[in-house]
Amino acid sequence: MLDTIFSIFWGIILVLSIISVPYIIIRYEINRRQDKKKEEQGIYIRRVNRFEVWICIINPFFPFAAYMASSYGGGIGIWYNLLYVGLVLFFFLYSRYILVAYVKLSPEGIEQRVWSANPTRYPINAIDSIVYYETLNVEDQDMVGFYTAPVNRLLPSVRLPTITIESWRLCGSGLRMSVGLI
Known about the structure:
Blueprint: H1 2-39, E1 44-46, H2 50-54, H3 61-72, H4 78-100, E2 102-106, E3 109-113, E4 120-123, E5 127-133, E6 142-148, E7 158-160, E8 163-171, E9 174-181
Antiparallel strand pairs: 1-2, 2-3, 3-4, 5-6, 6-7, 8-9
Helix pairs in contact: 1-3, 1-4
């Protein structure tokens, strides 16, 4: 009886995970195109890498393995099913992170959204220093770190592909930056 319930459960999760993969990839590409259009207005939005998005292709494998084991393996027991639930939950949470995580730099300030529906906003006048970290490895991404004055706290770091920074200027109207993406 328990194996039948788990077979139905894993079948439903398998179908949902198969549907979610193209949705995640398509939604990510749509967001990237919209972000490119906002660059013309001086709003720079950075999301996760494409490689990290393509990792979501792994999502259906664990529900498929659990479904096959529950349906044709004669039952795998409650502990293995709970292990599979944990793995599937981890990959679904990672998929949510892919869909919602971003860092936005604009004249109004820095905005970061990671897990919650409400993004965290930092005003430009809270930034005391900007540090550019250039990686030596070509495959890794350069980073820009923002620090506040009173507590020297790190604000969201922005991962950037290989960039050439022409200028950073802080002025009364906000952050003016000229970043050339290669």
